[in-house]
Design brief:
Strand order of the largest sheet: 4-3-7
Number of strands: 7
Strand content: 15-25%
């Protein structure tokens, strides 16, 4: 997986995915923009809890009343992606789930250890 800060990078439009379902390249905010500070804490893990998500124990997803096809998987992401979310929480509309092997709307995920919905 590669990262770019160039919104016009032609690889972003290709929509190519590797064998895991992830894109070959992801857009992130520049180092300079991220260095301006964060409006949310930098977090690097989130849990797939489904629509209207709430804090979930990935080892016992049945007791949490998740909706849709939530799998309860814990996904980790790299520092630049984490800092992009912390600087601009609305930067992404979807994020990757390692359990489902696909990108889903951010509102289906909560930050690990919180009730905070990703992208809010």
């Amino acid at each position: 997986m590669s990262l770019t800060t160039d919104r016009n990078d032609p690889r972003l439009k290709e929509g190519q995915k590797n064998e895991t379902g992830q894109h070959e390249i992801y857009l992130v905010l520049s180092d300079e923009e991220r260095a301006k500070g964060f409006v949310r804490p930098v977090r690097n893990k989130y849990v797939h809890v489904g629509v209207g998500g709430h804090e979930t124990d990935p080892n016992d997803i049945s007791k949490h009343g998740m909706t849709g096809n939530a799998c309860g998987a814990l996904t980790s992401m790299g520092q630049a992606l984490s800092e992009t979310y912390a600087r601009d929480p609305k930067f992404y509309g979807a994020t990757f789930c390692v359990g489902c092997n696909k990108h889903l709307p951010v509102e289906e995920f909560v930050w690990d250890g919180t009730n905070g919905i990703v992208g809010s």
